Amino acid sequence: MASAAGKLRLSPRALLDMAVLKRRLTGLPPGTPDTLYVGLTSRCDLACRHCKYRGGPAGPDIPPARLRRLLKEAAAAGIPRVAFFGGEPLLYPGLDAAVRLASRLGLFTQLDTNGQRLGAARAAELAAAGLSLAMISLHSAERSRHDALAGPGSFRKAEAAVAAALGAGLFVHVSSCLFSARPGAAGVRRLLALARRLGAHGARTVMYSPRSGGKAAPSRRLAAALAAAAPDGFSRGCVRPGRRDCAAAAGEILFVDADLSVRSCPYSGRALGRADRGLRRFFGGERTRPGIFPCHAPARVC
Amino acid sequence: MAADKKSPVPKTIAWRRTGDEAVILDLRTSEYYSANGTGTFVWELLAAGRRPAKIAEALAAEYGIPPAQAAADVAAFIEDLSRLKILSPEAAE
Predict the structure, then answer these.
(1) What are the structural domains of chain B?
(2) B14·A16 Cβ contact <8 A
(3) Cα dihedral A44/A45/A46/A47 (nearest 10)
(4) pLDDT for A102-129, tens place per residue?
(5) Does B36 lie at the interface with A, CB-CB under 8 angstroms?
(6) Which residues of chain A does B19 touch, with a Cβ-Cβ cutoff of 8 Å?
């Protein structure tokens, strides 16, 4: 359920985008992903402890011409939503043009950002270009815990980004890598309470991370805690109670990285192939392919 | 096709064609509706300000149905839209 604060600020265009998305999701052909995640760049202005890009060499950004082709392919294939991902997608010079094209193609357009560069003016620019939803990283309700994972001062900037995106009339979700923050059930409740207090319309939770250094994530326990803390559906995660597959393994999402490698999700440990020869051959999820596909989730999840 | 009158769609209604159907959103309530193929055909003409009689003519021509049936279908569709407060009352005029 959307908070009253957020709902009042939504732009009519974002609301209509969401209505169209919901309608399209109800008629999505079997095997078609509901979201194409596109890694625009591996560059980032933070060095989060759990991130797969931390400490690695920054590869080239996705070429603009290839990105345009990818968006057109996604729209033609019936994928209803694109999520611009990173690295940090706000560092990608062609972001506004990509948002404009995606919106013009009828794609629901989402930005997954750490929020460090999302001030009011930037949020307004992206909203004008056709952005509908900002997914902003907040890994813990405790500032010190979030800052320990993502860097000093990042919590305050992410909070400000939520306000900026709301002010621009966007849907705003908080995105949390719960495994990194190791919140426990009480921490989950505090995190969702914070998201509601900030005016967010929802929260997305990722249960695992390869870089956090811990043992197998207690994903199912966290999923149950989330369901209990948000029975109204405010929170959604890639691991859901009562479901064996994660969203990626079920083929609900697809990820194309800046180097054009295709994975079932941004955190998957194995490339399925390359996007050069089209996207449709990757529809259907990993279950349609024989073999072993180690994503970074703990074994009992995938 | 030229408009016959001002669009009867209130400012509180937003809509967009997606594929073969129109998604129509009531901004006051956040409730949304989808129109099927023929509904979308009629809706787009209504939103463009065409009068119901002209829309019925176009519907009959497009789908090859008797004019009387087309007129009744258009009237029923407008009644549904009015009941849902998607159209202002003068739409039926």
Answers:
(1) 13-92 (1.10.10.1150)
(2) yes
(3) 50
(4) 999 999 999 999 999 999 999 999 999 9
(5) no
(6) 24
